[in-house]
Write a structure and sequence with these properties.
Order of helices and strands: HHEEHEEH
Shape: globular
CATH architecture: 2-Layer Sandwich
CATH class: Alpha Beta
Number of helices: 4
Number of strands: 4
Strand content: 25-35%
Distance between the termini: 80 Å
Number of domains: 1
Structural class: alpha+beta
Largest sheet: 4 strands, antiparallel
Radius of gyration: 23 Å
Strand order of the largest sheet: 2-1-3-4
């Protein structure tokens, strides 16, 4: 009898956990996603700072090559690449210097916050910068 009671309680608890709550049933099935909007700030080799806004879907903002920049980001997303991820700490990078340029990208991309910094201090960072193509200012600019 005690085993049957314990089994019934376990099954009932499992059913309650698996069932959607009454609150969840009254929520809207899809909440609107924030727009894909990024702020790109770059400091060139001469120390000049530039900043522009990039909006995608549709492409716009003050970015000088918004269409091309959005295409780079969408292509990377379609391939499952995260262009905003930092270089892994255990990465082996060539010891080369690509210049003093730096950049920062903040905002929202595909519903998640972005806060990434870029420089050209070694081979991994140079590659990471170059992978963003038209999103970041051209190196040496």
């Amino acid at each position: 009898m005690l085993r049957r009671l314990a089994l019934t309680a376990t099954v009932s608890l499992a059913a309650l956990v698996a069932a959607p709550s009454a609150y969840a049933c009254h929520q809207h099935p899809t909440a609107p996603q924030p727009p894909d909007r990024l702020t790109v700030t770059g400091t060139g080799a001469d120390g000049t700072t530039t900043a522009y806004e990039l909006e995608c879907a549709p492409a716009g903002g003050t970015h000088p090559s918004a269409d091309e920049a959005c295409e780079v980001l969408e292509q990377a997303s379609a391939e499952g690449r995260d262009l905003f991820a930092p270089v892994p700490e255990d990465a082996l990078c060539t010891m080369q210097y690509g210049g003093p340029e730096t950049a920062r990208v903040t905002g929202t991309w595909h519903g998640r916050p972005v806060g990434a910094t870029y420089d050209r201090t070694n081979g991994c960072e140079i590659s990471r910068w170059d992978s963003l193509g038209a999103v970041l200012p051209a190196a040496g600019a």
